[in-house]
Design brief:
- The protein is globular, with a radius of gyration of 24 Å.
- It contains 13 helices and 12 strands.
- The protein is an alpha+beta fold and 463 residues long.
- Among the domains are: 67 residues, Phosphorylase Kinase, domain 1; 203 residues, Transferase(Phosphotransferase) domain 1 (Transferase(Phosphotransferase), domain 1).
């Protein structure tokens, strides 16, 4: 039976599920383009699909914002037809053995800052910045980063007057604890600065492979969130960014120095990392680590097939070819590693910066930013940014704010049978709180907006 929605989209196989309903692979019968089709029963108690559609309507037109192809009702279902997307940054991070090169991190940083800036320009804060919520495009848009999942987003200012929401305390933690800002852990109302700080933790997560507050053991979720908060507040920025260019510490220190209603200087942040990119002599070729790795896999597959055919005729010669190919591959990989890929080292041993000069560089960057914006008083002029950051840590540790743990449940990932070739990109990761029912939300546009994508399993398979 040929099922269609919106008169021109053919409903295909089911590829996933969300809190609102099911997701199917669809096809535009006119162009042949594949799309994602979301279905939600019209009789559901708390419909969310129309809220998702309204949110993407507000965001429509932005670079890296998934496009909605069609919205309406078909029979007993509310339907949204959306652009099909590729794997998430978390998926690609795992594919690259949980380590990104400096080049890849900087290329991503440029796009990620721009995505958050656009969301903020539409008067919303995301409040759940994490690798799962950034997906790569497909085809010609394969190097474009998309931002998704606005289920926890909130309006931070009035669209007409730009009146900022008031400062408040004793707020429950909203978002993912691993990437949450310190102020969020302290129960302070989130604003633009918190999205930016969370992004800084993502940069270090991609660079290090993990964050110091991962893997902490606790008897309850509440205790675990408290341990994460304590570890995060006890880890100075300079320690977190040790072994990497000072721009990362500068970025985080500036984010932490922002006031509640401050507008981040997105252009400054982009330029900060672009200058580092040029200093490292990287090429703007939009080649990410996973592109290189998939290229290596294809080449190795070809070599393996050639070797197998050859060894069947000449076993001894085949063995020699195998050894030679391995040596060549290792040499090529080592050469690439020297430029920053997949290593814990700095760019190279010749470029190592001693601790003192790193501190001075971080101080200079933060102070330059603060001075140019009148954020530093004469009384604080002689105090270094790192010393000021240390004062902040003492404040955090002695502050008697109640550290709140989420009062909402945590959703689990939906797992499809292994027989399904096309799998959804699940953006409701293990740490993501389930948003409250629509009628109880602070913000009318604040629902679960899972954007699912399909990718062929062979695209990300290591051999």
């Amino acid at each position: 039976m040929d099922l269609r929605v919106g008169n021109k989209y053919r409903l295909g196989r089911k590829i996933g599920s969300g809190s609102f309903g099911d997701i199917y692979l669809g096809t535009n019968i006119i162009t042949g383009d594949e799309v994602a089709i979301k279905l939600e029963c019209t009789t559901t108690k708390h419909p969310q699909l129309h809220i998702e559609w309204k949110f993407y309507k507000i965001m429509a037109g932005g670079v890296g914002i998934p496009s909605v192809k069609w919205w309406g009702t078909e029979g007993d279902y509310n339907v949204v037809v959306m652009e099909l997307l590729g794997p998430s940054l978390e998926d690609l991070f795992n594919f690259c053995s949980r380590k990104f090169s400096l080049k890849t991190v900087l290329q991503l940083a440029d796009q990620l800052i721009s995505r958050i800036e656009y969301v903020h320009s539409k008067n919303f804060i995301h409040r759940d910045i994490k690798p799962d919520n950034f997906l790569m495009g497909l085809g010609k848009k394969g190097n474009l980063v998309y931002i998704i999942d606005f289920g926890l987003a909130k309006r931070y200012r009035d669209a007409k007057t730009h009146q900022h929401i008031p400062y408040r305390e004793n707020k429950n933690l909203t978002g993912t604890a691993r990437y949450a800002s310190i102020n969020t852990h302290l129960g302070i109302e989130q604003s633009r600065r918190d999205d930016m700080e969370s992004l800084g933790y993502m940069f270090m997560y991609f660079s290090h492979g993990s964050l110091p507050w991962q893997g902490l053991k606790a008897a309850t979720k509440k205790q675990k969130y408290e341990k994460i908060s304590e570890k995060k507040m006890a880890t100075p920025v300079e320690k977190l960014c040790r072994g990497y260019p000072p721009e990362f510490a500068t970025y985080l220190n500036i984010c932490r120095s922002l006031k509640f209603d401050d507008k981040p200087d997105y252009a400054y942040f982009r330029q900060l990392f672009r200058n580092l990119y040029h200093r490292c002599s990287f090429t703007y070729d939009y080649v990410f680590d996973w592109n290189v790795l998939k290229g290596e896999t294809r080449k190795n597959d070809t070599k393996d097939r050639q070797k197998e055919r050859h060894s069947n005729q000449h076993p001894d010669i085949g063995d020699n070819i195998d050894a030679g190919a391995t040596a060549t591959d290792n040499h090529r990989l080592v050469t690439y590693d020297a430029h920053g890929r997949g290593t814990n080292t700095r760019l190279s041993s010749a470029n190592e910066i001693n601790a003192q000069s790193r501190m001075q560089s971080v101080d200079a960057g933060v102070r330059q930013y603060q001075r140019s914006r009148g954020m530093i008083s004469k009384a604080r002029e002689g105090i270094s940014a790192t010393a000021e950051a240390a004062d902040h840590h003492k404040y955090y540790q002695s502050h008697n704010h109640r550290i709140n743990s989420p009062s909402v449940d945590v959703t689990s990932r939906h797992v499809l049978p292994t027989s399904v070739v096309a799998t959804p990109i699940h953006v409701s990761g293990n740490h993501r709180p389930q948003p409250p029912p629509a009628k109880d939300r602070e913000n009318p546009i604040s629902s679960s907006n899972d954007v699912y994508a399909v990718r062929q399993s062979s695209r990300l398979r290591k051999h």
